[in-house]
Structures are given as structure tokens and as C-alpha cells.
Amino acid sequence: MSELEKKVERYRDNLFRMTELRKGLIDAEISLVSLRPALNLSLYDWKKLVNGELEEREPDVWDLIDKTPTHIKNRDKVYKHFQKILLEKDIRISEVAEALDIDINKIIRVAKRLNINRDVETEKKIEKFLGVKVFE
To answer: Which of 59, 88, 110, 130, by CA, is between 20 and 30 Å from 103?
Structure first.
């Protein structure tokens, strides 16, 4: 195995681990930015952690996620599921809004179920664009 193949494999492993970590952070409603002061990381170490190159501090992040109360993990399930799908597909909400010609705030309201009446038409448009069943 050449050096380039090893680097690609290492990068792929880091990407997979960080995607799973970010999904956990979405469930716990913890931002990547708030990890830096919570774990007392320097900017250099924080960037390495975000890129998946600081494996020795990842258990600390999982401890923070595990310490999050269950009522926080259980609220806004549909919106968190929507965010995870966007993370997996490497898409931003703004890109979805631009592609579907729908206001970003409307997409967030639909995903968080803030409207009194469900906007089934918008839900179907979003699901069709993403190719995944998001709303139940």
C-alpha cells in the first residue's frame, strides 16, 4: 500500500469518526465552537479535533455528549434528524432553500414543526430534494 493510499484511508477514517461525533453533538445540542472552552483546547488543538486528528480527546467529547440530559436529547427529534441528513449529504440548509426556492426560515419552521398546520407540500419538496424520508 502506497503512502498516498494510507493517507486517503486515514482521512476516510477521520471523516467517518467526525461525522458520527457531529451526529452526537447534534443530538446533545452542543456546537463545535463550544467544545473549545468546554475541553480547554487551544485553537490549534481544536482545529485538529474538528478535523479528526486529535483522537485522544474524542472520548472527552463523547463524555460531554453522554452527560447531556435526556430531555435535551429527546426534544426536536425531527429537526435533529433533518440536520443529520444534511450532515451526511454534506448540504447546508441555505443550499436546500436556494434549490427549492423556499425561504430558509420556512424550512426551519417546517423541520421544527413550529407551524400550527403542517405544511405537507413543503415537507414533500424537501424530502424529494434530499431523497430521504425526513418527516413522518
So the answer is: 88
Q: And the C-alpha cell for 116?
A: 400550527
Q: Residue range 40-66: average pLDDT?
A: 93
Q: How far is CA 63 from the centre of its chain?
A: 18
* pLDDT of res. 88: 93
H or E element, residue 12: helix 3-28
What are the distances in angstroms from CA 37 to CA 23, 24, 78, 94? 20, 18, 29, 28
DSSP string over 42-86: -HHHHHHHHHT--GGGHHHHHHHHHHS-HHHHHTTHHHHHHHHHH
Q: Which triple of cell numbers denotes residue 125?
A: 419538496
- pLDDT tens-digit map of 87-113: 999 999 999 999 999 999 999 999 998
Residue 89, helix vs strand vs coil = helix
| pTM for this entry | 0.86
- The distance of Cα 117 from the centroid of its chain, to the nearest Å, equals 27
